[in-house]
Amino acid sequence: MKNIYVTQPFLPPLREFVPYLEQIWENKWLTNSGPFHQELEKELADFLGVEHLALFANGTLALVTALQSLQITGEVITTPFSFVATAHSLLWNGIRPVFVDIDPITFNLDPDKIEAAITPHTTAILPVHVYGNPCNVEQIQVIANRHGLKVIYDAAHAFGVKYKGESILKHGDLSILSFHATKVFNTFEGGAIICPDAKTKKRIVDLKNFGFVDEVTVVAPGINGKMNEVQAAFGLLQLKHIDKVIDRRRQIDAQYRKQLISVTGITCPPLSIEATSNYSYFPVLVEKEYPLSRDALYEKLRQCNIYARRYFYPLISEFPMYSGLASSLSSGLPEAHSISLKVLCLPIYPGLSCSDQMKIVKIISEE
Ligand SMILES: *Cc1c(COP(=O)(O)O)cnc(C)c1O
Question: Containing domain of residue 343, as a range?
């Protein structure tokens, strides 16, 4: 029996990609802002409804560079309920993460708990739009303004999400995206920083190219964060298919909601009513009314070759390089701990067949 993973990348027909490769072979321009790189920056900015976007080799380098570009130091307030790269980007900059609890409805950083965590060392807030659901961006901005803090959004899950009719990526000082193979839009590996103006973009572009500003001048200890032409070309091809990919995800999301509503002890967190969704994940909460524990259901699905994922368990604050921090104490993060023990992300991707989805639903509902 074939394996069903939580996600599987959408791959356009190979023949559609061949002409792009032929052009790269023709140009012999493989990286360093080649023609496909320039075109993808333009097309993505248009598609996403933002003005300034800098491509990266992956989302983690985009995060590390975003923090560098704003010269963030000291302490940064962030969420324990995310992929580990969110906090790792802080450690790579010598910054101390300060974990704040999440809102049990949105699973995002709880703005009401941010101010109590601010100290004289705090310089920024690094929230995550978890599963693509927008953070409370207005309240976070009010707090940031009041305390003179920068806001950098880890928007790795939020590709294409519109909030109150506008791109969610316009909020905060910077937002980062990931185009990893597991994300809604992928370039095998890839990422981007969305920034408000050309001057900020110039700084970011210099930083992702070792800090070079011309052949002989290096202005900062930059990194190699550049996206190559093969990645960029693949992104241009993906973009041609993205509407159909997201629409198929929407159908799968709707089907799960319809089928699982009658299952006692399984809750499907609602989608935000003020935002569009990209249907990047399908989290369910396995409550105590369900006959099996979350982990028992996870194992049962595995026995049937269905690889659901416990995003995000363990919490970032439980990993050894973070667990010694005062803000990692579970007493300060009750909601994050509770959700982390209940959540299970079910398979959702355009290639998931209706019959495979019904099989998943059947296994969950027959308990
Ligand atoms: C995927 C992801 C990243 C990292 O992106 P990469 O492109 O894999 O480096 C960062 N933050 C979150 C929340 C993610 O899901």
Answer: 242-365
